[in-house]
Fold these 3 entries.
Entry 1:
Amino acid sequence: MTTSDWTRRAAMLAAGAMTAGTAAVAKPKTKGEDPKKLPASLAPYACNLDMWFKTVPFKDRFALAARAGFRTVEFWPVNRDDGSNAQSVRALLDANGLSLAQYAPTAPAFADPARHGELLDMIRQAIADARVLGCSRITIVGHANVVGMTREAMLSGYTAGLMRIAPLLEDAGITALVEPFNRVNHLNFLLNGSQPASAMIRAVKSPAIRVLWDFYHMQLEEGDLIEKFTSNIDVVGYVQLGDVPGRHQPGTGEVNHVNLLKAVRKAGYTGLFGLEYSPLDNDFDRAVREASQLTAEAGLV
């Protein structure tokens, strides 16, 4: 299916959703797959709507995700320049029979303690939005390096910020996922790879603060994926996938995702896998087929 085909499909699905209101959409079908089996094969995944279906506006991607067979999605901020907010996005989720795994409100650089007030304001709003969205996880970053601060001071400030928001999150039943990056293509950030983020989460000692374990970042930063994950399973709250190089779907790069995901399940992780990658060549049908195949080969369901 070409990019223009997906664009036309989005327009038709969006029009249908407007007509149907909040009614469930038709059973998704994808070329080359048994439609009765496809939804189960995609059940372990949350499709990232900021990386998938980028050929159409954000609001039209929900219908495409549902049509492809996904049950769950994720995205970055909910409040956007196109006017999207928690209420309008919840309507899109409901209209397309989708649930939200997690989203990422914009966080201040709170390694600087002077910005902890902004951090608290952000968390309060994120909790309110999460309740509207029916979501129990948010991803927070906010670990950009701060000019004039030493690394030790930034680590201390970031840890203190996490400790300040932990009681709010615990009371709300919301988990904040701290996402470390890598130093290959995400420059000037404090947290990269599995350490020191894992040590920081252990220091905070709150069940509401966990690590978002993005294997794309982990491979670029440190490799040794299975051993690092297994030894830090106690702090993992959510997992994302993306192959290296290119940040495309598993199977397009150097990582053996079948072995990796078998090890992840063996280590005790039973949650969803966020598909935070751009399907190669915007070939969404291929990416869906390969995600389905990975489910079977890795024994995810």
Note: The domain at 3-298 is CATH 3.20.20.150 (TIM Barrel).
Entry 2:
Amino acid sequence: MSDFLAGVLEPSPDFGIVVLLRLVLAMLLGGVVALVYRFTRAADETAHSFTVTLVLLAILIAMVTQVIGDNVARAFSLVGALSIVRFRTVVRDTQDTAYVIFAVAVGMAVGAGHPILALGGIVVVAIAAMLMRRGVAVPVRHDPFVLKIRLGVGHDPAALLGATFDTYLLARHMVSIGTAKQGLAIEVAYRAAMRSEEKAAEFVTALNRLEGVQSVSLERLESGLE
């Protein structure tokens, strides 16, 4: 342990400046990694947290790489110390896993004193990600509302509600449908994105005026589409 601390605290005239520059560079390049992610992946409510994680990960890996240096014993010590950390959040997509590794590699390259390697990797990975990007428009808005409508039995939700939906909604999809009032009514739930949230009250009123609609509920999802 004493050797470990001595190695970490070993004085050097330019050590502080070099460390600071590397950490700042890791932050900047981690930000570039996050921008590549946001530009090539469909945005949603969880994207902000993930991009922040990529930036912080690049900085932290740069720190760890500088602490380890060429000392094998120090590397094993840090592996043992970091092994107590447990991450329980499952990465939702294999491409997201690739971006995590991307941030780690950039942080390691900067921490090891190879900024050109980090920059080259960013350029090549960014080009590859953009070339293989899905040929569909990235959605700007998702479905921040849950819309629940109760209809009388015998009414077709699509036929009855379609015209009003097209007028007020940017997008919607059905998430559930079932009976209510002991089979005397049908309750349908949608995830929906409004064309204009200022017209929410007008939208609910328009639905209530439709013959066959018994009740309408429009609720905002705090965390967005899961």
Note: The radius of gyration is 26 Å.
Entry 3:
Amino acid sequence: MQEFLSVYKEHQEEIEQFLLQSLKNIDNITQFSKPEFQKLFKTFPATDLIYVVNKEMVQCSPNFGRKKIISEAEGRNRLYLKKRLEQKDEGYFVSKPYLSSATGEPCVTFMIEGPEKNVLIDFEVSVVLMRLGLVELHETFNKILKAFYLLVGGMLMLFALLAIGYAVFEYGYHLVHDESFSLEQIFKPIVALTLGLAIFDLSKTILEREVFFKSYSDDEKGDSRLLSKFLIAIIVALSIEALMVVFKIALNDYSQMIYALYLIIGVALIIASLAFYQKMSRK
């Protein structure tokens, strides 16, 4: 779905102008009643949701969806939408893409001002792009992909929690049952916690971007930050492991110290690679 958002951003001005001109061709839309709103779903196949607010941005109509009407939404305060909306023309406002709380799909909202009330229409981003011929979307395949990302992200999150649980259990077990408490028994849980945190962060990003779409801005910077955070967690874990190896060799056999040096050099190479990547990313 990130590809859809990239395409939308690339053609944002043309898409917004198309939707704007289409809405302008409908007379007295702010005076529409329930049957007329239902007809808009046929006129605009990309329409996801329609509702009406008063001048104080309090909803004074149900949520008119393509398949159902939600009366419980009436009376909600929609004042927060004013922060998302930018004026495109006199009486017409549009938002940037965001996740619809009503449908769970990425959408853009158009608001049409009237003398007494305003009409808000949510357009589903993927359908808009498909209708304009900017992308080819296969609904079944898209659902399969979404389910796959949900499964993988959920499994990663589960393994991250297991790693954290193992760290807590390992530390508690040795603290209670072992008479001699060594540094190794402290370092191992720390490594497990660090790896668990890195895996959890990765799974959270996968779920946000491919399933729940929490954020749509600065995608390339987000990818760079994700990789940097993941590598930093790995570097911390390997550094702790290297320190533990040094202590063990120092206590047992100095002739094996070369292997600890190899591990430290490996960590240093990862740090240098990360620094080079970040420098090139900024350029």
Note: The radius of gyration is 27 Å.
